[in-house]
Amino acid sequence: MTVLARTVEATRRYGDVVALDRVSVEIRAGELVGLLGPNGAGKSTLMNLFVGLRRPSSGTVELLGGSPSDPAVRRGIGVTPQETGLPEVLRVGEVVDFVSSHFPKPVGKAELLDRFGLGELVKRQIGGLSGGQKRRLAVALAFAGDPRLVFLDEPTTGLDVEARRTLWDGIRAFHEGGGTILLTSHYLEEIEALAERVVVVGHGRVLADDTVAAVRDVVGARRVSFDAGELPELPGVAGVQREGGRVHLVTSDPDRLVVELVRSGTPFSGLEIRPTSLEEAFLTITAAKEHAHA
Amino acid sequence: MPSLVLAHTRYQVIEQIRVPIGLLASGLFPAIAMLAFAVPFVGDDPVASTLSMGSMMLVGAMSAALMGLSISVAMDREQPFNPYLRTLPAGPFPHFAGRILTTTALMVVSTLPVILVAGLFTEADLAPARLAAIVGAALAGSLPFMLIGLFLGLVLPSKAAIAVSQILFFPFAIMGGLMLPPQVMPAFLNAISPYVPSRGGGELVWWAGTGAAPDTLALVVLAGWTVVAGAAAAWAYRRDEGRRFT
Questions:
Q1: In whole angstroms, how far apart are CA B196 and each of A79, B174, B200, B232?
Q2: Looking at residue B20, what is its pLDDT?
Q3: How many domains does chain B have?
């Protein structure tokens, strides 16, 4: 499959802060990729590198076979503005015309607005739209130039269920027509509803790059912690971490793990079972993988 | 490329027209000043009224250039829509060119209320060629103020840009001999007057208005200010680009 966008060992620093740390990701034609991670994980920085707003401190970023800083290359992409930043005094139709004028073959105002349920608002000033309508307009603008690759940053944050459905339908329709999408979210639910492949980022690193199903299993994991010495082989352990005498085990089946632990006769104390945060689960697994490789 | 400049200019002009207070602010003050201070005293003197009209037209253009540009550029930098524009397939040029064209249009519009007052209540020379020459002179004389406005807009947040450009504007207008003609200004003001850019601008509009030979020193100083302000604006532009887009 053709690669539409890729980073190779891309690192981005802001002063002393490392926002992205040697990240290599590929977006292939026809994919709908979710970029998942907590705030501050490096999602926005990665997006900004792809759309040409920022340059990597080291490593390379490639977009549609060229550089994101080349305006001609950017004719093939679409990006969402933040809805809070849309020019308030412009009418909906005017901002669509303005954005469309940058592209050689724009979709057309009426068709674009209908696709996102905004057809009746052409003549309305943006300042008078509801938050949900502004959000939909912002997402619609990403599709105005009939792009091959679309970058959507938190497309449905703060929307009600119905508005979210309308937006999801618009995004799916584009994807079914062969379009490629990279979308960020901090909701797993949104990624599950739309994406096939998930890239999880945390602390500026890619923690996982896998199918939605595989990621969901990890997210459902629990962390079983206790004080113990040597451990026997235990079933269903996805990751092990040690802090002094304390052992943290990540597993998708904590009940079975505890039963086996007791059965093995290993002395332990201070048993604690709690849900892992997404980031925690991935960090534990990553640490385990690195340990295995070392 | 020209069609993109047009698209960006159109978008910025619409923004200005829909909030007309910005349009009126620069044009009303000089028109009122003309009405209060020129009409009663020199209204029936054709040469003096033409000089006053020229001064006030320059004040309007200067104000639109300095305040208008500094505020709009500073606000642009604060709007999240601005980075979005940079993801569109256009470099920074169309937006920047649109900003300059829009400001120039506002500068011309800011001279109109003064012309209206002069036409209604004074004997000022309103021949179209004469007016065109004065407008041209006012635009040329305002060039350093556009560059200073650009510089302020690029280095200051919008609230500070509003305050600083207002604080700068009135002393420049007064020291340039635009509020009080140089003949009646106090001696100490007359001594520093040739060294402010607004005096060179004044010399240009008076020259265009009455054919009176301009003061060479003031014109050389005007050119000097333009070069220095241009360098400062270019430095501020590169600094802003480096901070936000690299």
A1: 46, 10, 7, 17
A2: 76
A3: 1
The mean per-residue pLDDT over the stretch B240-245 comes to 86
Report the relative pairing of strands A222-228 and A180-185 from DSSP bridges: unpaired
Q: Which residues of B touch A98 (CB under 8 A)?
A: 7-8, 10-11
- In A, minimum Cα distance to B17 occurs at A89
Alpha helices (runs of H) in B90-215, residue ranges in sequence order:
93-121, 128-155, 158-175, 187-192, 197-210
- Whether the ipTM is more than 0.90: the answer is no
The CATH homologous superfamily of the domain defined by A3-211 = P-loop containing nucleotide triphosphate hydrolases (3.40.50.300)
**Checking DSSP bridges between strand A197-202 and strand A205-211, what pairing results, if any?**
antiparallel
* Closest residue by Cα to residue B14 from A141, A92, A112, A105: A92
* B89 chain-A contacts, CB cut-off 8 A: 71-75, 102-103, 145
**Nearest Cα to A9, choosing from A17, A21, A19, A26?**
A21
- Say yes or no: A102 contacts chain B, CB-CB below 8 A: yes
Domain assignment of residue B155, given as a range? 2-245
Residue A153 β-bridge partners: A184
pLDDT digits (tens, 9 = 90+) for A71-110: 999 999 999 887 677 899 999 999 999 999 999 999 999 9
A contact residues 71-90, partner B, Cβ 8 Å cutoff: 71-75, 77, 79-82, 84-87, 89-90
Q: Give the span between the Cα atoms of B101 and B103, in whole angstroms.
A: 5
Contact A253, A243 (CB under 8 A): no
pLDDT band at A294 (very low <50, low <70, confident <90, very high): very low
Query: What's the pLDDT at A83?
Result: 64
